[in-house]
Input
Amino acid sequence: MAVSSGKKQRTAIGGFIFMEREQLLVCGLCGDRCFLDVWLENGRIVKVAKAKERPHVHGNLCLRGAALKQYLYHPDRLRYPMRRAGPKGSGKFERISWEEAFATIGERLRTVREADGAKATVFYSGHPKWYRYMMAEVARDYGTPNFCTESSTCHSAREIAYELCYGCPVLEPDLKTCKTLICWGANPAYSKFSSMNGILDIPDRGGNLIVVDPRKTPTTERAMMHLQLRPGTDGALALSMAHVILAEGLEDKKFLEQYACGLEEYRTYAAAFPPERGEQLTGVPAEQIAAAARIIALEGPFAIYTTSSGTAHAPNSVQSYRAVFLLEALTGNFDRPGGNHGPAGDWLRLNGFHHDARPRIHVEEEFQEGRFPIWNALIPNEGQAMGLDEAILSGHPYPIRNIVAFGMNFRMFPESEKMRKALLAAEFFVNVDLFLTDSSKYADLVLPCAAAPEREYIYHLPGNHLLYMPRVLEAGERLNDVEILQGICNALDLHGPLTGMRSFDEYMEWMLEPSGVTLEELKSSPEGIPARTTKKMSLYRYERGLETPSGKVEFVSGLLEPYEGQAGYDKLPVFRPCMEQNPAPEKYPFILCAGGRRPQFFHSRTYRVPWLANLEPHTLASLNPADAERLGIQDGGRLKVKTPIGERTYLAETVPGVLPGVIYIVHDDEGDQNVNDLIAADYLDPLSGFPGYRCYFCRVEPAGGAR
Output
């Protein structure tokens, strides 16, 4: 495999001859890291295509990747550091040098630390995630416990739930050998392009694909069974399936007797969720619940595929995830072939993975004041960001004076107007980004970062194969995220193991240490090098003892038991209906489900790309045709959505696959159309702090006039 094919094609267009150079690169627009082939002319990309198959490299091309050129060469890309030259929010900036930017940051952070302590500064990371280990080290060596990331709304709730059950990070499904897969709360046809074929092809090899999703999607169309549940009722569905398995004696008794604890208490609790009650709570027919339970118990091996959203975005998210994940143990499919398992055989993890970061220091001083103790116990390397807006605006428990952010987007927060006001109120705000976003307009300094094709990096490919990817495009004055952090370290005179590094080559050398391969070797090997040093990893970790308080799979959580009686901290995976928090069910009879993904978008990063934005120029509100007819709302007409904290007007889209009584709105970057503005900032899961984006309550009514 060659990083660059070295192939030059002489092409004639209109009588003129020019040279094109083919180059391999990593897209970087979302978290999938797909390989693309691009053709360069005079240092610019002129063509993008799916990468040709090479050893260790498999290419994918989605709508987002096809639009890569428009993204990279967008006129709004930041090109050089800038300092605010007008009132906050005015978007007026003046060009400065990197030296001035770093000197300003260093002086400001030192001054505030001397006056009010390091805790008065918050470090925040948005998307992407590759530099987070370094950012956590910067926060640690600077002395603040206040380091947080967008994982406060993505990923961490799922991790907490799995840790409570099994004492380890989420184990992924064995897509190659499972007989039955439940795709729970996920639509890989839109959101996980690299996994899509492995999931959607399961029926073609004679397997069973069951999808749990409130909507009909391209993924549900491939399923043998679609369990279309009401948003926020995942826990009830999982408990009802567990009821069937236990009532009919289909559980893996040998596994449970040896390796699990708390089963009898769980059995007693699940007994209250027969399929008939499951149907009442979830809307899924009782016969479907029973049939799905029998399939996963009898037609194994069985695995579960979940994502970092869907089930996560509810005020009962962790307990719901616990109920879902315990189905693995109930059927004996935890850390076994064909089930959900960890790495086996020769295994390598390069340095720099965020989840390996050292715990924060002085956690007792964080701005959350111990609000999420289980989070701090299980996610020790970062804090929960929800509540940052309130801490800034109220000054409680102490003033937050500085925000150093990479990819801050206030619209990702619930009741996001509060976070906008917080950014406006912050004394000093730095934002690193690719574009001059609305959040960046409130910054005192805006710093330009390089996109994936504009920076070099090391990739760990299947088979423990390492590949050095050189910079494909010139970055100009843009620096990669680690280089920016290194500049901040230099300005603060930090000298920790990582913060003392002053070049990106040093950082990459450190990344490679576990592999036994040097950076010099890897740079001189265009086809890459297999790792020389690996660890032997094996399955069946439950035989060696799990890292739970009991050392076993926990149906009753030992970590939660001391908090019994505190709202949401039940030791069993107790189901609490989200709608119990509805202050006025008659006034707000609809369920507002926000945040579902469209195939052309990834977060807000791609909303400004013309090819993609023009596919759907306005935010659409999707509802069932029967609801639309009953309310007098026409397809393509205007409707108004009201919640306890506000109202917004959208264009209506009638979709038969949407459940009656539910309205779907994708969050976007379209100013006053952001649906997160309608969801209360305190509507959170008490364990993880995750906002209830997928199951808030609202009223829907027609709105006159045309948009």
The longest strand covers residues 16-26. DSSP finds 22 helices and 30 strands in the chain.
